[in-house]
Design brief:
The chain has 7 helices and 12 strands. It is α+β, with helices and mostly antiparallel strands. Strand 1 and strand 2 (about 110-115) form a beta hairpin. The chain is elongated and about 95 Å long. It binds dinuclear copper ion.
Length: about 325
């Protein structure tokens, strides 16, 4: 209904109309009360003005009923906004399981995207129309924020951990992509475009010339190059815990407590292995911080995730 409203960016995702509806609801509530308050301020100022220097107003004793009404009505409206907003927030925070997985690294001042199949792009993101896309994002330096106005999605991209965001584009076309967090001199230059394509054309594009190796294959190479397998070989008595089937599982930690083996945990265990020691193992793993780039870390994480998939297939 608001698609053609001239002050608004195009609505090109499944979330867009939902976000807009909530936004306009809040806008209308605010506009209504602003008008009401201003009207009353002026009406009362004129109606109850002092008419002669000797005039003394009657004292006011207050009204409980009035106070209850003006407390409960705003409470009810605020609760509607809260419930509506949380439902939308939860929907936007949870990517559907079948979502296409794409990996993002932000750095001063560019966006790097890596597709599972191996395609890599800078300041440009190709996605298929009508399919949910999940972005796992990290930063090489400072805080950035990935913002696609036409999709009504924006999520901070932080150094040292992964954040995620998802969307489903509904219209083929080209849309703006911005960094929405001030990140230094060329912050305003840190932008690009999202190209939404028909699924068949997207598949063609994926298979195009620049593809190279898949993320998983690159991760496997790094894994071998860094000698990870010498400790993490899934064998009894190995120095490190087995990584097969690890992703998504709950890991018991030394000294009690547990953690879910998600992307953030895997990444942390590579750059800061001492942070969480798996129960039954010694804190002997050296850090790989500085030896592996943010993109390399993503490749390793994807490789470890794929070990899970292979285990599940058996
Ligand atoms: Cu990156 Cu602003």
């Amino acid at each position: 209904m608001w698609e053609n409203f001239p002050l608004f960016p195009e609505a090109a995702s499944t979330a867009a109309s939902r976000v807009d509806r909530l936004f306009f609801f809040i806008l209308i509530v605010c506009a209504f009360f602003t008008l009401l308050i201003f009207t009353l301020v002026f009406t009362f100022a004129i109606r109850y003005r002092r008419r002669s220097p000797s005039e003394r107003p009657r004292p006011i004793s207050g009204s409980l009923r009035l106070e209850i009404v003006w407390s409960l009505v705003p409470l009810a409206i605020a609760m509607v906004i809260f419930a509506w907003g949380s439902r939308l927030y939860v929907a936007l925070a949870r990517p559907p399981a079948e979502a296409l997985h794409i990996f993002v690294v932000g750095k001063q001042w560019m966006w790097k995207f890596q597709h599972i199949e191996g395609q890599r792009e800078i300041n440009e993101l190709h996605v298929p129309v009508g399919k949910p896309v999940r972005l796992t994002m990290s930063s090489e330096d400072v805080i950035h924020s990935l913002f696609v106005p036409a999709f009504r999605v924006k999520t901070d991209v932080l150094p040292g951990r992964y954040t995620r965001m998802w969307f489903e584009a509904t219209k083929p076309g080209t849309y703006h992509l911005f960094c929405a967090e001030y990140c230094g001199t060329s912050h305003s230059e840190m932008r690009g475009r999202v190209v939404v394509m028909e699924p068949a054309r997207f598949q063609e594009w994926l298979g195009g010339g620049r593809a190279g190796e898949s993320l998983e294959a690159r991760g496997a190479q790094l894994f071998a190059q860094l000698g990870c397998a010498s400790c993490h070989e899934p064998a009894p008595g190995a120095r490190g815990p087995s990584l097969v089937g690890l992703f998504g599982k709950t890991v018991e930690l030394q000294g009690g407590g547990s953690v879910t083996a998600d992307e953030t945990y895997l990444r942390e265990s590579i750059v800061n292995p001492q942070a969480k020691i798996v129960s039954g193992f010694q804190p002997i793993m050296p850090t790989y911080a500085g030896q592996v780039s943010e993109e390399g870390l993503l490749q390793l994480v994807v490789y470890i995730m794929s070990l899970e998939e292979k285990a599940a297939r058996k």
